[in-house]
Amino acid sequence: MKAISAIIIIGTAFFVAWTRYRLKLWERSIQSWEDELLHAPRYNLSQNPKQSWDDLPPVVQRYLTKALRTPDGRPASSPIIQSVQFSQEGSFQTDPSNPWTTFTAEQVISANPPGFVWDASVAIFPSFPRWPMFQVCDAWTNGHATLKVALMQVLDVPLLPTNEKYPEHSYKVDKAIESGEAMRWMAEIFMVPTALLPGQGLFSWSPVISQDGDLMQNQARLHLSDPFQPLMESLVVTFDEETDLPSQVEGYRPKWIHTAESFEMTDWVGYF
Fold this sequence. Notes:
Elements: H1 2-38, H2 58-67, E1 83-92, E2 101-110, E3 115-125, E4 128-141, E5 144-151, E6 155-156, H3 170-188, E7 203-209, E8 215-225, E9 232-239, E10 246-257, E11 262-271
C-alpha cells in the first residue's frame, strides 16, 4: 500500500512539474515572438513609395482623410503609429457545423516591420466558458508564420500538416501558411491607419471594376508587397457609402483540406 501511495505521489509531482514547465514554455514562446516583432529593425520603405496621394482611388482618399482627423474634424498631427496592443473577448466558431464558444485574446500588431502575434484562449465546450480551454497562437513575425494549438497550454494539438509528414510539400505548406497570415495582417492593419498612407511604402491601391465594366465607387483593392519575400497579396475593401469607413474585406486565402491532403484557395470574407 505504501509503495502504491509513493508511486501516486511521485507521479502527481512529476505531472505538476511537467505542466508548469509546459506553461512556462508557452509563455516564453509568446514573449519571444512579441519581442522579435516589436524590436526588429524597421524597413525604410518610405523613400520608394508605390504611389502618391493623387494616385489613390477617391474612396481611399476619403477614408484616410476621415480616419486621420481628430474628433472635431481637424487634420491629425500625431506621429506615424508603429504598433498597437489590445485585448479581445468574443465568440469563436471552428467550423460552420460547430457551435460558437467563448474566447479571450491578447494581440500585438506591428505596421513596420509587418506582423502580428495573437495569443488566445478558446473554450472547448459552449456550456463551460472557462475550462477546459484550447490555447491558440497565430503569428506572423519576420516573414515567418506560426500557428500553434495546445490543450490547456500543455498538450500540443496538430492542426496543419507538418513538414515531417509531407516532406515533399514542405515549401508549399510553409508558403501557404505565410500567405494566409499575411492576409490576416492586411485585414487588421486598418487598426493602424497610418500604415495605409502612400508615403509609408507598404501598400498600393487600385480601383475595382465590376464584371460589367463599371467602376465600383465604394470599393478598392489593397495590394501588399511583402518586404521579406516575393509575397504578393491583395484584398478587396468595401467602404460604407455614408461613413467612408471600411465595412468588409474579401479575397482568396489558402485553406487546408484534410480529405484532399492539400491547400485550396477559398473565398475569405471579414466584416468590420
